Amino acid sequence: MISVIMSVYNEKSIYVEKSIDSILNQTYNDLEMVIVLDSPDNEKLLRKEYTHKDARVKLLINDRNIGLAMSLNRAIEVAQGEYLARMDADDISKTERLERELEYLIKNGLDVVSCVADKIDENG
């Protein structure tokens, strides 16, 4: 299993939705998504749209803003996957991202793998 960890702070809901959907719609689907909400802005969306509809989503809510690093550490503490993948709340992953990264990681006996990025503006 791959645990995808993400912290959400003040990102616009539309970006958060696209980001989460891009992970939940991966070609590799043996995954869990651990999302740490570091501000209350997106709580209603995350609870309504994801935690009730997809059992792979785990939502942690910070009592106060603790920042990105500490939020990601909270996600790692509850992650159950053999592998960790990092996701930003305003990024969109290509549908084969996790499958290709895991395949490359295993094939080459690596501990860490990264990928390139395409820039997306407000118009897509």
Structural features, described:
- This protein is an alpha/beta fold and 124 residues long.
- It has helices at residues 13-24, 43-51, 68-78, 97-107; strands spanning 2-8, 31-37, 57-61, 83-86.
- Helix content is 35%, strand content 19%.
- The protein has a 4-stranded parallel beta sheet with strand order 3-2-1-4, with helices on both faces.
- The model has no long low-confidence stretch (mean pLDDT 91).
Please outline the helices and strands.
Layout: E1 2-8, H1 13-24, E2 31-37, H2 43-51, E3 57-61, H3 68-78, E4 83-86, H4 97-107
Give a quick precis of the structure.
By secondary structure, the chain is an alpha/beta fold.
Please report the number of helical segments.
Answer: 4
Gyration radius (Cα, Å) is 14 Å
What's the arrangement of strands in the largest beta sheet? Answer: 3-2-1-4
Poorly predicted runs are: none
Q: Which secondary-structure class do the elements indicate?
A: alpha/beta
Major sheet characteristics: 4 strands, parallel
Task: Please name the defining characteristics of this protein.
124 residues, alpha/beta, globular
